[in-house]
Please model this.
Amino acid sequence: MAIVEVNLPSGFEFDLDTVNDFKNKNPIVMRYEMEDGNTKANIYFDAIGHENVCIELIATRVFKVANPAQAYVQVYDYYDTTKKAKAFYSPPEYNTM
Model:
């Protein structure tokens, strides 16, 4: 089992309908959990193999934040958390503030 942990930048929240739709349309998704006021999604996959898996989730900016920190997406093995990868990102809107 693999978990994809998606953390949003400050000021953003997930649109819960799109997260639920993503789960319902992807049979390899076992379940998902939302944390931290819908700013963090943990998506549980039965397995992630060698093929690409694209996760499209919609987030909405609910307020502006000065000097926001980068957010990150992390993928790890549920049974062996030493097997993991992490990538940082900033939404384009922050580059123009």
